[in-house]
Amino acid sequence: MYDLRADTPDGPAQVGRPGAHLRSLSPKGKTNREGQQPGQGAARRIPVYTGRTDMIIDFHVHPLSWREGTPSLETFLLQFWNADELRELGAQCSTGRAFAQYLRGQGLDCAVILAENTPTTGVFDNEQVLALCDGEDTLIPFGTVSPGMRHDLGGYVADLVARGLRGLKLYPTYNLFYPNDPMLYPVYERAQALG
Description:
Blueprint: E1 2-4, E2 47-49, E3 57-61, H1 71-77, H2 83-92, H3 96-105, E4 110-114, E5 116-118, E6 122-124, H4 126-133, E7 139-143, H5 153-162, E8 167-168, H6 172-175, H7 185-194
Parallel strand pairs: 3-4, 4-7, 7-8
Antiparallel strand pairs: 1-2, 5-6
Helix pairs in contact: 5-7
C-alpha cells in the first residue's frame, strides 16, 4: 500500500500521529520549492510505501452487471476475462453481501460503488446502486445525475441522500454535457448544503 505523509512541526511524521498521512519531499535541513523547512507550510506530497497501516478503500468500483452493459463494454471486459469467467463473476457478485464479500477477499475494506447511466458503457442506475449497497457498511453508494435527467435535480439529489446516497459522480464526457451547465447548479448547491 502507498501512503502520503508529511513532516509535522515536531519532526518527521509517524504512522498513527496527526499529520502522518503526508510527507515533505525535501530532506531534513534543506528547503523545499517554496523555500520552507520540512514541516513548515504546505508540504509536497510523494507516495511512500509503508505496508498496511490504514483501511484500503477502492474509490472507483462499478458493479458488474453483464446484462446491462453495452457491446463496447463487453469487448473491453473480454480483453481481461473470458465470457464464462465474466458471467460467473457477475453471478457471484449479484447481491450486496456477495459483492462485499468478494471485495473483502480482494483485500479491500470498503468500496465506493458508482452508478452509471451512459450510452457508451451501460446502465447501473442510482436505484440499483442503493439496492446493492443497502445494509452493507463496506459498500459506499455514489449516484449520478446529468442535465435533462429530471426537472428538479437538486430535490432528486436530496431524496437520494435521504435514502443513503453518500456522493455523486458525474459523467460529462459520456453524457455529453459541460460540468458548468447552469442546469447543474441546483445539484452543486444541494450537495454543498448537505455536506
